[in-house]
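Why do we care about 3D structure at all? Because function follows from shape, and shape follows, mostly, from sequence. That is the central idea of this module. The next example makes it concrete: a single protein chain, its amino acid sequence, and then its structure expressed as tokens.
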Amino acid sequence: MNSHLEPLLPLVRSLLAAGDEVLVATTEQLAPKVRATGARVETVLADPTKSFQAGSTGRPPLGSVLADKMAALLDISELPTRAQQITELAESFGADLVVRDDSEYAGYLAAELLSLPVVCLAGAMSNTYDHDDLTTVFNVFRTELGLPALTGPAGLYPGALLDYMPESVAFSVAPAPRTVRFRQPRRSEAGARLPDAAAASDRPLVYAAIGTGWRTWRDLGVSGGDDPYRGMTDLLAALSEVECTALVSSGGMDTTGMPRGPHVEVHEHLPQQLVLEAAQLFCGHGGYNGIREAIRAGVPMLVRPSTLDQPANAAAISRLGLGSTVSGLDAGQLAARIADSLADTELARRSRAARAGMLALPGVDTASEVLRTVRRVESD
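And the structure:
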């Protein structure tokens, strides 16, 4: 998915700029974005969204709903076949390091088959999921590929974890031997500009976005949080009651018939990084990309999660004092929480401190040098 590709592209560009050769295994859908970097591209991965309706594939139960769903999805995406294809590609390419998104496991298995060092970009899997469940799932596929079974979750992250978060607000609970940290990179937002309503207003700017998480809730059927349609309805009603200027990104959700005050603008998409720079509060669904971007902008958060890692991310936001969870609040209660958060000077201070911690990290342009060190350490 694009939300998983975007954090990897700055790494690809950094490695290419330093003279490294880079081969990216991806899907047909995402290949054009990767080719634009100048990297070599091989489209050997399956589009995971086509597997969202996966049911049981006949395996014996693995002990939890999450483990069973993951095994079914990985069966549908033909994980062992993809892992063998990437193994052959990496071997013929002469790869000496594998860099993977933490929800992409063909690369993980290929690195294991070739005994290559592997760097994992932190995200939903490394941050929040039950690693005992994940170990159970991947032992099934490791056995099919002739790899020894893992005796504990540390084997899921045999190499360095790469994170765009400072240690002071770290989310990851992955048992990785080492974490390499870079400043959250800026995505290209070519042609972006702040909407006129925000630029002309003297009221606090609240930015709200539901991202693509609502599609996952709808298509994958993994809940754990609020119905995102109900959440969007309550959010628009709440914002309509608050003295603010509100910009809302619907992520393609149909908001026809939902309440909307004159100071609330709904767009299908907005230039998120740019809007966050001007915002005093971010209302989101708890996706890790949006959280990192809000921290980089120093913006407090209200989170109403719906699925996957989002409830755990929301809990982390509350624990770190960077905002709060608003699950289950009705429109009136949510309006009060928004108003209180806008007036909370201590919340704003903590958010600025988190931003300073992130901005103190090295830029991703130094990644090539750092990853060369990782290769040497993990190869010894």
